Known about the structure:
Blueprint: H1 3-16, H2 18-33, H3 40-47, H4 51-54, H5 56-75, H6 81-101, H7 105-116, H8 121-132, H9 135-190, H10 205-228, H11 233-255, H12 269-297, H13 310-315, H14 318-328, H15 331-338, H16 340-360, H17 365-393, H18 399-427, H19 437-459
Amino acid sequence: MGAGAEEVLGGGRRGALIGPVLVLATLVASVISSFGAPLIPTVARDFHVSLSSAQWSLTVALLVGAVSSPVLGRLGDGPRRRATLLGGLAAVTAGGVVAALADGLGTLVVGRGLQGVGLGLVPLAMATAREELPRARVAPMIALLSVSAGAGLGAGYPISGLIVEAWGLAGAYWFGAVVSGFALVCVAVFVPSSAGRGVAARFDWPGTLLLALAIVATLVAVAEGTEWRWGSPTVIGLLAAGAALFAVWAVQQSRAGNPLVQLRLLRHPSVFAADACAMVLGVAMYMALSGVTEFVQSPRSGGFGFSASAVVAGLVLIPLSFLMLGSSRFLPALVSLMGARAVLAIGCLVSALGCGFFAVVHGALWQAFVMTGVLGVGLGTTFAAIPGLIVEAVPARETGSAMGFYQVVRFTGFSLGSALTATVLAAHAGGDGQPSVGGFTMVLWIAAGICVAAAALAWFPRARAERPPAGGIRLPEQTGDDLTSDGLRP
């Protein structure tokens, strides 16, 4: 066999691994970035700080993820895609090392912030899949990457709990550094260079700064609302500042020559409905996850709960992760049969069913596993379908930016869900300061109601197209020639 033939075969084997490597990078980044909730009591104990202070080891990752998503998405549009993907994974790896060596909470928060950059890699992975994979494989791969991100967040809970129990807090962060370093090497070897593919556009630094300040002000207020009191001048001032900054940012984006996010894409009904669903489902997801993990850890002496350890509470989420991944595999067939909007609405209703089930029936631990399994089916379907609605409606050159904004609204929903859970449980606390069973059921009923609202958002707006081809997502041509001058489909 000649050298040319060997090169072609080698390139073919390398190309076949691009998809699995992108899934690996997405899973690793999501798992590591979610190293937070199960470790908060350990962080408080090891660094001799309060639980509210230790909470920042999780909050900072969500904050950085919300900001880094559109930034990495825009940096990755065009010839800088592979370099940006490598840089993001390098930041996650460095964050693991910093967190593992931390001798104080401040250093740990810095390391966790670097690990939070990994949450912004999902739009980059999706844009890379659209650029590098054969057209027939793009649709199912984008759906799988979206679900991998959500499943990774769920898998991080039990993984971190098990590692901390075996090797301590530093061991969890060293584990993160090793696996993210492995993902970095895989991307460097198997993902081809994107240099020379178009011209790198000028980066929108003013828009980035405004968005970062707006998100930080809003999410800090949400994260600390319970601790600082929702009616306090500080919280109200931060929320007002966040709203004002978002308004200024929206005006700046509409006037920028090369904006960070093409907000005009929201005029497309599918894009607007998909982003709205992503935010409200993010709220419901974190309410359900926080509610069920705290419920199972509640002492039986209170008349409810199962006195479970943090490890067992993490294991309760295993069905969520596995069924989120598994249910996404049926998306193309479901979309061909019923249409994308119907699939999205049904997935939301299945998620509501899972939340409602555990709100009514919660006398045995196995029922918590059933609840997260049903939730996994619903969320797996919805989070796989949402990117398809967005990608179908935007030009290829805007994929990274559009998916970056999708990540922003999803992470904003996560933070809102976490804060809302704390508020509801605090409002239903007993004389000993511990939440009552009524507080937990209220959290789950609110989450169920939010899922029903998401189904309405998905169903009622007029759909432009209901039956994409068998792949599940209809993609515009890479040249964008079938698009109007404002970047939307005619």
